[in-house]
Design a protein that fits this description.
This protein is mainly alpha-helical. The chain is built from six helices and no strands.
């Protein structure tokens, strides 16, 4: 089989892309999640919360809501509808944390739930801690370095 025949076979066996239909849905769902967070932030600010407190409250609320929807099996349905739009970092991370834990809860609290919960969080926490130490060290060593 030569390259042209192989390319024809691959094209024949591959499913056609549904990108034209899925991109607008991903945009709407992801934008909706972000808009929900912004509306909640503005509401908290109007109630008199300080900016950092409002932003932290929004983050915690979005994580809790995402974890709750994952536990109820609704986040998966939203992801099937909105595709990559549900990968908005904060809600997508919460979903990625809760899903494996729910999947392996039959193995018990320690070996199932605990292990799977930290199999996702471990690399993220390790990278975040290591990166912050490196950046802090660089800023300490290079005081003339521009700060963000």
């Amino acid at each position: 089989m030569d390259k042209q025949q192989y390319a024809k076979e691959v094209a024949r066996a591959s499913a056609p892309s549904k990108m034209r239909a899925t991109l607008p849905l991903a945009f709407l769902v992801g934008g909706g999640i972000c808009a929900l967070g912004e509306v909640w932030r503005q509401l908290l600010l109007s109630w008199g919360l300080q900016e950092d407190t409002a932003m932290a409250t929004v983050s915690v609320t979005l994580v809790a809501l995402s974890a709750l929807l994952t536990g109820l099996g609704l986040y998966h349905k939203l992801a099937r509808f909105g595709g990559a739009g549900t990968l908005v970092p904060i809600t997508g991370f919460a979903n990625a944390m809760v899903s494996p834990a729910l999947e392996f809860k039959a193995e018990g609290w320690v070996l199932g739930l605990g292990v799977k919960l930290f199999s996702v969080a471990g690399p993220v926490i390790t990278y975040g801690t290591t990166a912050s130490v490196i950046y802090g060290f660089l800023l300490w060593i290079l005081p003339t370095m521009p700060r963000p």
